[in-house]
Design goal:
Shape of chain A: globular
Helix content of chain A: 25-40%
Strand content of chain A: 5-15%
Strand order of the largest sheet of chain A: 1-9-8-7-6-2-3
CATH superfamily of the largest domain in chain B: Type I PLP-dependent aspartate aminotransferase-like (Major domain)
Radius of gyration of chain A: 26 Å
Structural class of chain A: alpha/beta
Oligomer: heterodimer
Distance between the termini of chain B: 62 Å
CATH superfamily of the largest domain in chain A: Type I PLP-dependent aspartate aminotransferase-like (Major domain)
Order of helices and strands of chain A: HHHHEHEHEEEHEHEHEEEEHEHHEEHHH
Number of strands of chain B: 17
Number of helices of chain A: 15
CATH class of the largest domain in chain A: Alpha Beta
Largest sheet of chain A: 7 strands, mixed
CATH topology of the largest domain in chain A: Aspartate Aminotransferase, domain 2
Largest sheet of chain B: 7 strands, mixed
Number of strands of chain A: 14
Radius of gyration of chain B: 26 Å
CATH topology of the largest domain in chain B: Aspartate Aminotransferase, domain 2
Chain lengths: ~500, ~450
């Protein structure tokens, strides 16, 4: 099939009288119509009538316009696009798990409760923290849970604090989360090494002064509820003074939240609990390889120190151990503990994105302590290899040691009028998904490359070759790069008009 | 480790190119005192076969049932084989959020279709690409209503909302010290309109009403809307069982300004409560306050129609602390399951299944009421769930049912709700198209037999 031909919206395929799902014979008397007259369903709008083969073809054709992880390297910095093991899909689909019901009694859910307990134990050991909740649905939900824990802790101690500090290199979710939790956000400058700056930073061009960590602490001291910090940060650099940062925040009575989006650079190598972190989330869809699914579902467990444990979302899983006799294997029973008077409440309707939790534990058990460490080291080696091959070809604005991802920019190519967006789009023509672009915002024109541990040297070399070719094109024939992509199903799309005159659904009288 | 591709020789080449001797040399940015000196205290790696065995073993520690009559926010419905086969394609499940539209048209067009269908099912103008689940959809809807209704600070919640949704709302509102959540009571299992009228003053930004509510009842949204409109408040309908949308009028057409809820019923398994599928539909005038991702139509350079993520000016990566929500991800793959399921069902399938649900639940209720141990508690119209009172020893009866492979309805006494005293010893039953007449008769037969033995 010609991949550039367009598959129409399904609504245009709809022909009355077709059906894609047969119904079983009704084996009880038909429903008596008890609905109030005005609450009866009248029609279904454009919900299409199509047969099964037509719908399968529709979605299969649509799928072919997506770039997937199995097609090639997907070096989206910060997003951690690594291989999605197929075993994890099989285990999460086991009927014992997938057909279990969240409102059933604990005694009928011993397998699920054991799985949740076990995964929590793994994550406690990985993070070096005291307690874990698996309830948050995604990274942003984990962040909010973490900040709500900080808030509950301060309130329980009678403190009404106002501010959350966020380094300017942080992902936008951090300030958005702090605001959702009712805090005012104070930006903290990063220095030339990419890490949180303790001193104020004066912009050499505008002369504007950005506040460093010391002066913010001095001014706001006891009003600081906490700090949200990503480590390694969004430049892929380990915050070398993380220990000092934690003790300073603790000194003024604040708590430290770590955004664990980049935890895949630390697993088995270093533990946030040892740095002085009080609470953090992890993205299981990054670090623990659960698939991204075209934008979800994710899972954002939160780990915390003992002082925050009473505030964790309820219910909390408890293991009761009965030891029958000397030398016998202890018997475990699991139950939910709902009696948590200091809990912040629920942050998910039930117990989290359970199917993702099954996948994450499968990943953990497959890797084991040795495999987890090896994966981390390989992710770091792969990023450093890409750095070693592309430095000089692309500008490396911050030269501190690279962990799991490396941030270049378009400074060299911009001289020929070729910018980050062009480079990203041209990579599509070379058969790769582009890196994360224009983020972090502390680097102008950022190209953030995260290869992950599941790329072979051969694939890394192919990517490096493509990046070098694009750099060459940028200097020799910049227009070629401006036109990119030319091999994708569509050329560049007009996002401005899309936002200005939004068309967010199909209507039967639409022209297109 | 089977997922890690490098050979020892390639490893050496990588390290040599970097200019280090061993991988640990790349950790020079980490202060040495933080570097672990030994492996984590966890089991070592395992083969695929060993892990599969261990997980199977764990999954079998859950009790399995031959027939299930439990809903209460998580519903088992038929899933055509085509759904699992299609979402198993790597192009769907391994891809990322469609930030690069040129190579993500599959995901983007699917979401556009999903949004269109959800608009029609809910009777609203704009749907987003999904939210985490029903409870968080309530929270996001309530917060959105407060943003729209700038000067108003109170949100009313009907006590008929799922108790867990109410708890998610409360935890989410706790940090907004300027906002208030106030409960509206029930009368005969549906929202008490006189209480609603009494509490719906001009400080109220929005009112959340279950449709159907937690007890299975069909609330009269139109009557609620007359009250909320009068007070200048928005009406938010909360549908925890989306299959009911095949039977009931689209909430947006009968008074709801925002229609939100849980759509896991379309193509997803109960899976211990997640991942599920939160949805929200709103009026056109409110679209720029909508939380979460939205896909819109546009053109490419050559004038061809395509789709992109849009209205991003609302989102956290641009607005940071001024964003409408901190959400980045949605429930992409779950929405895909729902979209495929809905397209397979079509109008005939959705209407037909919904009618079967109503028929099964009505039949189950009437059969139960023929037994002396069951009493009616209320008499409002319901869809596929209803509560009855059991006059007998429920814990022993439940044991008997479980022994027979039957998962019975929910004991309402296990929840602490404001209506608990009225629903004491109540069991919330659910029947769907998956429950055959044979299963229902088996349930009745076990109960009748048990009652005789214990008479």
């Amino acid at each position: 099939m010609n991949l550039r031909s367009r598959e129409p919206l399904i609504f245009k395929r709809s022909v009355e009288g077709k059906i894609g799902m047969d119904l079983p014979q009704l084996d009880v008397p038909p429903a008596e119509d008890t609905r109030p007259l005005h609450l009866k369903r009248k029609d279904f709008g454009v919900l299409p009538s199509c047969s099964e083969p037509e719908i399968i073809r529709h979605f299969t054709r649509l799928s072919l316009w997506n770039y997937g992880m199995d097609q090639g390297m997907y070096p989206l910095g910060s997003c951690t696009m690594k291989h999605n093991p197929r075993l994890n899909e099989v285990t999460s689909a086991l009927p014992g798990f997938s057909e279990s019901h969240p409102m059933a009694s604990d005694e009928h859910l011993q397998g699920n409760l054991e799985l949740i307990f076990t995964l929590q134990e793994w994550l406690k050991e990985v993070t070096g923290l005291h307690a874990v909740t698996l309830q948050p649905s995604a990274g942003a939900a984990g962040e909010l849970t973490g900040v709500l824990l900080i808030r509950a802790y301060h309130l329980a101690h009678g403190h009404h604090k106002k501010f959350i500090l966020v380094p300017d290199s942080a992902h936008g979710t951090n300030p958005a989360t702090a605001a959702m939790a009712g805090y005012d956000v104070i930006d903290v400058a990063s220095g030339p090494d990419g890490c949180v700056s303790f001193e104020d930073i004066t912009d050499s061009v505008t002369g504007k002064v950005k506040r460093g960590f010391n002066s913010v602490i001095q001014e706001h001291g006891a009003d600081i509820a906490g700090l949200m910090i990503t480590n390694p940060n969004t430049l892929g650099i380990f915050e070398s003074r993380i220990g000092d940062i934690c003790s300073e925040i603790h000194r003024v009575g604040g708590l430290v939240y770590m955004d664990g989006a980049n935890m895949n650079a630390l697993v088995g190598v270093a533990r946030p609990g040892d740095f002085g972190i009080d609470v953090m989330h992890m993205n299981l869809h990054k670090t623990m390889s659960t698939p991204h699914g075209g934008g979800g579902p994710g899972a954002g467990p939160v780990a915390c120190v003992a002082a925050l444990e009473p505030f964790l979302p309820r219910p909390v899983v408890v293991r009761d151990t009965q030891k029958i006799g000397e030398g016998e294997v202890p018997e475990h029973r699991y139950r939910w503990d709902w009696n948590r008077p200091q809990s912040i409440g629920k942050v998910h309707t039930f117990f989290g994105n359970y199917g993702m939790l099954v996948r994450a534990l499968t990943y953990c058990m497959s890797h084991g302590s040795d495999g987890l460490r090896e994966a981390t080291l390989r992710a770091i080696v792969n990023a450093n290899y890409v750095r070693s091959q592309l430095v000089g070809v692309y500008h490396l604005p911050v030269t501190s040691p690279t962990m799991h991802e490396v941030v270049f920019n378009d400074a060299i190519q911009a001289k020929n009028g070729v910018h980050t967006l062009d480079i990203a789009k041209r990579l599509i023509d070379y058969g790769f998904h582009p890196p994360t672009v224009y983020f972090p915002m502390v680097v102008s024109g950022a190209l953030m490359i995260e290869p992950t541990e599941t790329e072979s040297k051969e694939e890394l070399d192919a990517f490096i070759h493509a990046m070098k070719s694009i750099a060459q094109e940028a200097s020799e024939s910049p227009d070629l790069v401006h036109q990119a992509p030319v091999t994708a199903p569509l050329r560049r799309l007009d996002e401005t008009t899309a936002a200005r005159k939004p068309v967010l659904r199909w209507l039967p009288n639409s022209v297109t | 480790m089977r997922y890690l591709p490098s050979s020892p020789q390639e490893d050496q080449q990588l390290l040599a190119a970097i200019g280090v001797k061993k991988a640990e040399d790349c950790l020079s940015g980490v202060p040495p005192k933080f570097l672990l000196k030994s492996l984590l205290n966890l089991p070592q790696q395992s083969s695929e076969l060993e892990v599969l065995r261990a997980m199977k073993n764990m999954s079998q520690k859950n009790t399995s049932f031959n027939s299930r009559f439990l809903g209460a926010g998580a519903y088992a419905h038929f899933i055509p084989a085509a759904v699992d086969m299609q979402v198993g394609r790597q192009e769907w499940f391994t891809s990322y959020t469609p930030y690069q539209p040129e190579i993500s048209q599959g995901t983007l067009q699917h979401i556009f279709e999903y949004q269109t269908i959800m608009c029609d099912l809910t009777g609203t103008d704009v749907s987003n690409a999904s939210l985490y689940d029903g409870g968080t959809a309530c929270l996001e809807s309530a917060l959105m209503a407060v943003r729209v209704q700038k000067k108003k600070n109170t949100v009313l919640i009907s006590e008929g909302l799922h108790p867990y949704y109410q708890e998610v709302l409360r935890s989410g509102f706790a940090s907004h010290e300027d906002l208030k959540l106030v409960s509206v009571g029930l009368q005969q299992g549906v929202t008490d309109l006189s209480d609603l009228k009494h509490k719906c003053d001009d400080s109220v930004a929005a009112v959340l009403i279950g449709y159907p509510n937690f007890l299975g009842h069909v609330e009269d949204l139109t009557a609620c809307a007359a009250i909320t409109r009068g007070a200048g408040a928005l009406l938010i309908s909360v549908t925890q069982e989306a299959m009911s949308l095949g039977w009931l009028a689209a909430p947006g057409t009968v008074g709801a300004d925002i229609a939100c809820g849980e759509a896991m019923s379309f193509g997803n398994r109960t899976s211990f409560g997640g991942p599920f599928l939160g949805f929200i539909g709103v009026r056109d005038a409110h679209k720029r306050e909508l939380p979460g991702r939205v896909v819109g139509e546009t053109k490419d350079l050559e004038g061809r129609t395509g789709y992109v993520l849009t209205l991003t000016a609302r989102e956290q990566h641009i607005r940071r602390d001024k964003a409408t929500s901190n959400i980045c991800s949605n429930q992409g793959l779950i929405a895909l399951r729902a979209n495929i399921w809905l397209q397979l069902a079509g109008p005939r399938g959705l209407r037909g299944l919904a009618e079967q649900n109503a028929a099964k639940a009505q039949y189950l209720r009437s059969r139960l009421l023929e037994l002396p141990c069951w009493e009616a508690i209320d008499d409002a119209p319901f869809f596929n769930e209803f509560a009855l009172r059991y006059v007998g020893d429920w814990s022993r009866m439940k044991q008997e049912l479980v022994r027979e492979g039957i998962l019975p309805g929910l004991e309402l006494d296990t929840l602490q709700a404001p209506w608990s005293s009225q629903y004491q010893r109540g069991i919330l039953w659910c029947a769907t198209e998956l429950n055959t007449r044979h299963q229902i008769e088996h349930l009745i037969e076990v109960m009748a037999r048990f009652a005789v033995v214990n008479a």
